[in-house]
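haha ok so turns out i had the wrong file open the whole time. this is the CORRECT one, sorry everyone. sequence first:
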Amino acid sequence: MTTYRGSHRFRDDQPRRRIRSRDHLARIRKSRHTRYRAAQRTARFVRTVNSVPRTATREGSVVLADVPFEDGTGSKFRPVIVLCSSASEAEVLPCTTKIWRRHMSFPVRDLQCAGLIKPSAVNCERRVKIQLTSIVDLLGQLSADDLEGVRRAIRPDLPA
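then structure:
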């Protein structure tokens, strides 16, 4: 049922929208634009500073990289484990702090050696090819036990 209150028309089941002034809307737009510009500057800075040495892309290295989402809508900076690399791209496995007991994930045990802050797991289900220019920083190196565990999670048919 629709009722009329003053010059506004409302439905009984919906709450009345708060009317904002033009100045308030302009402040909201300005603050959102400021945050957007700051994020753009950060992304531009990260892309131009890229001075990661070539040794950072050897097998078992833990690097911070700009990894695209699976659906291709965007990307996110996250730690990844380098599997192999060529002159222009690397094949990596992304790390996540959402540790679920999946069949194809491996929890990293030696966090300090890997350069990770929070308990993390390697998502062995999702191999991603990234450009070497998207690698931002070298975080650390997987320990020998962790690297062997990742290899076994990727290829469970390997001998023990």
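The chain has a mean pLDDT of 80.
again sry for the mixup
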